[in-house]
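Page header: ASSEMBLY MODEL / two components / 868 residues total.
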Amino acid sequence: MEIQTYEHDVLVIGAGGAGMRAAIEAADAGSSVGLVCKSLLGKAHTVMAEGGVAAAMGNVDDRDGWKVHFADTMRGGQYLNNWRMAELHAKESPDRVRELEQWGAVFDRTKDGKILQRNFGGHRYPRLAHVGDRTGLEIIRTLQDHSVHKSQISVYMECCIVRLLKDGDRVVGAFGYFRERGRFVLFKAKAVVIATGGLGKAFEITSNSWEYTGDGYALAYAAGAELLDMEFVQFHPTGMVWPPSVRGILVTEGVRGEGGVLRNKDGKRFMFDDIPENYRNQTAKTEEEGWRYTQGDKTAMRPPELLTRDHVARCINREVKAGRGSPHGGVYLDISWIKERIPNAREYIKKKLPSMYHQFMELGGIDITIEPMEVGPTTHYTMGGIRVQGDTQMTSVPGLFAAGEAAAGLHGANRLGGNSLSDLLVFGKRAGEHAAAFAKAQGAGWIDEKEVASSQSWALHFMDAPKGDENPYKVQQDLQKMMQAQVGIVRKEEEMLSALEKIQQIKERALKVQAPANREYNPGWHTCMDLTNLVTVSEALTRCAIERKESRGAQFRDDYPEKSKEFGGLNMIIKQGPDGAMQLRREPTKPLPEELQQIIKDMG
Amino acid sequence: MSTIKSGTAERRIFKVWRGDRTGGQLKEYSAEITPGMVVLDAIHQIQATQAGDLACRWNCKAGKCGSCAAEVNGKPRLMCLTRMESLPEGEVTVQPMKSFPNMRDLVTDVSWNYEVNKRITPFTPAKKGSRGVAEDGTFRMMQQDVDRAQEFRKCIECFLCQNTCHVIRDHDKKEVFAGPRFFARAASLEMHPMDTADREPFLKHQGGIGFCNITKCCTEVCPEHIQITDNAIIPLKERLADTYYDPVVKLFRWIFKGGGGTSS
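Prediction written out in full:
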């Protein structure tokens, strides 16, 4: 079977916001770029981002600036962030947003015609540039329409990479297949950028689509790169809970930014009951003050519904477990109540939250302008990921870069809403720039044909010579259910140790999966291959979660409910050992430079 | 609260088109129906339990990515937004979009759309010194002036409008016609207050907007409820009529362009 071969200076794996932004930058630097998408172009998970992109432009509140954004990001991440990334992100995101406008993005406007910014959890001032509640779609379409006119970019749609190829230490290419005909493809490249997003599909309830099987983490890990702080998985506080078929679909934080409130079955705004110490002086004392904040009153503090996602998710979980939840195991999120405060509330809600209105109308049979929604936590985002250098986004493997959700560092233990869209713009650009520079300095690498041949026979054996008759869909579901139950929003040592054992059993079963023998667009076969990645990342995540014996940010340990000073200064690093086994080590975080420490102090 | 009630599960029969570019047929499967279930859930259930290699595209499962377009009981729909309760009792047929070449089962070759997109002149921003461009190069645009462009930018590229448009579906004019999706895209650029390019020649010639006779089929199937016909196509047609056929405008242009023609 002949393998199609393509050659590029830079190969970008993943075509969401980070991948497309990297491709544009590398192309502008003169590189020939291959852009690989697992789905069709423009369908990546970035389209699901709703609320906005965080950038301290100060269009709505001129007290905002990069220093405040930096301090907010570090506080939200519980100071485990890569401070250099947090600094670059805060400084550069305004330019990245303005650049999008020059490329045709049409953000909502302020009264004086500038880009409008909205309130969001953990952000001190209104900071999220947005387009109603479909900001991600706007960003992906802008990048897509900008990149399709660049002749240096070749797009490979519905193409999936199964292995990175190395020449000595350096990454020099990738092997994969086209989903359409099942044909194999070899990409030769001088530099590779991984922008494959997250691993939501390791869990049963998730806002992520089928694609998010942790491919990039597993590819980088197998190529010898380090994974960082994989235990930090964000459970977004508000996913749909009813009906069953839509469980996990995201309900934007923008609902709360526009004045939506959380209530338990007794009608109580329970978020006022539990305000963490480090946010107390930034949080409203009364419901009235919270409302004034959402309406732009600069003297008011934000309502507790806009505390960080990790905290809100845990509070919702607590209400449900205490029997104060809604009929289908969630709590109530109510935006309809604002009709008591503003005229034309119905039209206002439909204008500001159009996707939410339609989503609930069409999938839930609920009119959110009249009734409250039922919501509960859903697996949403991976803060951990491939370890990179802050400035260049290069991994510990020469020639291998990572950006966006696939990379780790910016968000620390918890990501603030809106910081992912800015992350992918800022670091997508940086990854593209540095990958192009790296490629320029290198000659073409040597491709190991044996590696290519073994990758091919591995891919084919699921159909041609299966080692068993396990159903890949069933094995995947079993893994998801187990991870949800044992390594989910509330974690315990013994449950996770048992999870680790079960992962080993699932790993055995994943070797024995079988797909119908048909090369063309065969999702059963694709699931067999994705499953391998999912098992690897589930193991990494569980090992890190066991090792971090504290509760911090997105990691909540029932057996260690408090923050620990010791772990507050430690990162968890995963790397493949020489024997092929997964190794974990703790590494002290790098101390903040004086001037950044001062900023955090000043922003109190 | 939700109008979707818990109830006892029932099984329903699905006839799903299986085949490839050489042909195929409807095959019968069944799926257990739970409250609030959508057609895409049933397809997934069939995939996981009865037909592991059943090909279908999907991503977000929330009507935001536009991947799972198909024809349910003959009607072009997104499978993720088609609730089982909304369908009449009896068998449910699920077929691929008819206007694009089939790849496999419910997956069609939509690459033509991506080719059309490349032919549309990209956003061309006004420069510093122009009205609406501030000293630092950023734009000043009023919300009411961008509302219309934003409406078209809601498009999720499900291509249901392309699939339904009779110029494509019945007459297969793909060579000379861009289709409603790309009239909406062109309109979003033409109606952008800061855009300076002229896409009228494209719309008239390569885009073939004249083939559209305003039957509004595209608008009817749009899951984003974009008023493609009324707000995009008709205003574009009016602009073209002014530019190319209004005798006064024609004369005016002739004088100010130094005798140059208006067509390109």
